[in-house]
Amino acid sequence: MQTVKELNKARLENLKSDGISHGLRILIDEIQQAQRFNATQPQVRRTGEEYRKKLVTVYFNWQTDNRLMAHIIINDGDNPRLARLVVLEAGHRLYAKYQDGYQANGGGYSKPFAILERMVSEVKKHITINDWQSLVKHEVIA
């Protein structure tokens, strides 16, 4: 039986051989879909006309006072679904008592936003994102 520390080490070793985690691939795909959709939308609108823009929202819930779990809605055509977002590159780790997630430390700064920034910085290593703060949002859910 492996300890949690050994499991985390093994996950990071597998990541080095795989190159990219499954959660990061999901996040990249959702951002690329939103970028393609937004690129086809008209930039000018008439008065009263609704502006259509797709956003990528990452939902966080608190596991403990300093630990967060992330979720994302994956759009598979007609049936969107909520999935856990496990991005090992952004600091997702296993912890004791099944309270795995992203460790968030520091005061006076939005912890979910700090984790979202880490996720986006990993995405930027693989694709180009211009003005990511207007494309990727976060929400804290109960």
Question: What keyword list fits this structure?
Answer:
142 residues, alpha+beta, six-stranded mixed sheet, globular
The percent range for strand residues is: 15-25%
Portion of residues within helices: 25-40%
Task: Report the span from N to C terminus.
Answer: 33 Å
Q: Helical stretch count? A: 3
Total count of domains? 1
SSE pattern, N- to C-terminal: HHEEEEEHE
**Number of distinct beta strands:** 6
Overall geometry:
globular
Low-confidence stretches: none
The value of Rg in angstroms is 17 Å
Largest sheet: 6 strands, mixed
Rounded average pLDDT: 87
Helix/sheet category: alpha+beta
Summarize the structure.
The protein has 142 residues and is α+β, with helices and mostly antiparallel strands. Helices cover 33% and strands 20% of the residues.
Structure report:
The chain is an alpha+beta fold. It has one domain (4-40, 52-140). The chain has three helices and six strands; from the N terminus they run ααβββββαβ. A hairpin with a 6-residue loop joins strand 2 (67-74) and strand 3. The mean pLDDT is 87.
Which SSEs are present, and which pair or pack?
Elements lengths: L3 H15 L3 H19 L15 E7 L4 E8 L6 E4 L7 E2 L7 E3 L7 H13 L12 E5 L2
Parallel strand pairs: 1-6
Antiparallel strand pairs: 1-2, 2-3, 2-5, 4-5
